[in-house]
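re: ur question from earlier - yeah i can do the single chain one, its not a big deal. heres the input i used so u can compare w yours
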Amino acid sequence: MNIIFISNREGKSRSLTLNTWAKVLLSVCLLGLPVCSGLYLGMQFSGDKVNLLGSIETMKQELAQQQAELEAGREAARQKVEALTLKLAAMQARLVRLDALGERLTDMASLDDGEFDFSQQSALGGPEQEWTSTYQHSDLEKLYTQLQSQLESKESQLEILESLMVDRKIKQQSAVTGRPIKKGWMSSGFGHRTDPFKGHRAWHNGVDFAGKDGSDIVSVASGVVTWSGDRNGYGQMLELDHGEGYITRYAHNKKNLVNVGDIVKKGEVIGLMGSSGRSTGPHVHFEVYKNGRAVDPASYIRRTIR
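and the output i got, formated as tokens:
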């Protein structure tokens, strides 16, 4: 093979004769260049493909992580909603208890109907105020905390009021007030009077209430029975100790319905009206003692405990 070189300056030409090894080397160079270029491009393309697959895998991992975080957020939100729901249920139960306690106190205090109606919502009002945002979770927590504090305060106040009302009721029960009969009239007062048997002036230690034979005799205060039976001049008599130095007696009974040691309530039927002992007819001889001294029962019959 001959290779001819032509020079433009000198107008001359030169030829180069290639032997067999030169021909092989030249062919290898001419054919190897495209092959090498192809291999290089193929390697580059293959690398880009690997990088692309790696990017896709990374995106999948990030998506899975975000999905897990979203599920965790949903679970946390669900737990918070459940917690708030439990708080609302507890507060509702406490409000029901407060309403029941209020109704009880209203009944104990004998308040007028409608003055304290715990079955109705509390009356509220005021001018409308503008607002620019809704409640956030932190705001709800503050609201719950304030409401819980108010509930605890009201519970405490109502419990104190209940205690005072119970003390008041106990005081009313133990206070000596009212008449010892349900039906009848006062037939003899306290102090000096004409003796019904001998006709001379005599001292009367109590008051007499006349009525129908067998009528109910009631306790004028809660107390403990300290005597139940026959007593000289009194016939069948009952004696009750009410504490704080007060004792009452109910005499000339037809029958005693309570025994020594029994605890009786105010207004409880304790005997039946009769004419036992020194008596001219069915009546109740009623005495009041304070610190061992007989006092006029009339002032206690008209007495009002507030």
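Residues 11 and 135 are 98 Å apart (CA to CA). not sure if urs matches, ping me
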